[in-house]
Every structure is written in structure tokens, then in C-alpha cells.
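Explain the record.
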Amino acid sequence: MSDMPQYVVEATGTSLAILEALTEASDPMGVTALSKHAGVAKSVVHNHLSTLRAHGYVVKRGRQYEASLRLLSRGKQVRRSLSIYQNGKKAIDNLAAATDETTALFIREENYAVPVYVTEGNTDWMPPFQAGDRLPLHATASGKCLMASLSNDELETILENADRETFTDTTITGLTKLSAELRRVRDEGIGFCREEYYERIVSVAAPIPSTDGSRTAALSVSGPTDQLNGRYLEEDITGQVLSTTKSIQAALTGN
């Protein structure tokens, strides 16, 4: 079962398909390539590109096109509007500096966990996700925390409608096992992801409950399995994550 809208505007979908193709491309794209990607005639692509250019979302380079940096500006505007980002950014940076690990702030957007802010640690490891990506709720530490923070009715809706895709051998997809995992996260206030979305990557997260009726957030630390393991993960990093969430909560409430 899916909770996706039943009625969509096809033309809007075409514009978004073109824009997403341009944002994902490493080089500018021509009309022919975009036509094949979007599955529409070149004349249709021309019309959509003209509209996107008129609104500043696409730039023409010779006979090819690329996404403009206005998208970056819009994303930053959305992020700045989030009180959890305004109040949590400094604490997240401090946690990354103290642990030398990748630290991220997540919120839930429908059936996805979305990184709002990511700070890389002082290591050679690069996280496979970036701010704005959409990650599965059931297969990430932050996603589990976000789900566990929902009311029973909201959680039931998510579990019924979200696709619980298998990503690795350890991904939890069964409803009974996932429900038990979420109860544990709710009881303990901490969530783990042990190679459930990315192989050889683990993470630990804790929820940051809403204080003003807005959405709950989650704070996570992620890294490779040969770096985050044992007591260092279970006690040291987990303790610092919990401590940081408390400081962010204090900032949100003004205490």
C-alpha cells in the first residue's frame, strides 16, 4: 500500500524530471539527452527548459543546460526556517569536533529521514549521504528514532504505507521484528543501524523531541564498522550523542 497522491500534474512531473536529471549530471546536458531521460519529445523539453530558465532554476551553456545555484539558495532558506537547525548547529559542530566522527541532524519528511545538516569528522571517511538526501526510515538509526517518537496512530500509518525495502542482509523489514526494534528505541531513547542501509557502515542516533509542536528531530553519528564498534560505539559515542541532544533541547526551550 502506498500513501502517494493519486492525482498529479504530468507537466510538473516532467519539469521535475528534467531538473533532477540536471542536478544529478556531472556535466551540462543537451536537449536530446534530456528528452530520452524524461521520455518526452525534444520540443516539450525545450518548453520546460525555457520555463525553468525564466524562473532562474536552469542555466544555458552554449547548446547545453545545467541546474543553477538558485536551488542551493532555496534549500538553505528552507533549512534556516527550522528552529531545530538554528538551535542545534553549534552543538552538532562541537560533537563532530569532539569525536572526529560524522555527525548529522535529521528530520522526517513523510516516509523518509532527511539530513538537515551534516558535519564531517576529522577523518578520511566520507559519508555516503548529504544534506537533503532522502533515507529510509526503517533502515537508519535516525529513521528509527523518528518513527519511535511518533504517536501510535502515526506510527501505524507509516508502517502500513512505507515501503520496507531490503538493502543489506541485516535490514529489518518484517513488521513484527521492526515493531519490537522501535519499542526498544522508544524505551531506551537510542537507536542503532548496524549495516542495515549501507554495508560496513554503522550509526547511532537519539531523538530530539519537539518542544513547540513542530516535528521531532534526531541526531546521529555515523562511520565505518572498523572505526565505530565495541565500547567506543556502545558507550563513548552513545553517551556523547545523548548529552548533545540534551543540550539542543535546552537551547530549544531557552533553559
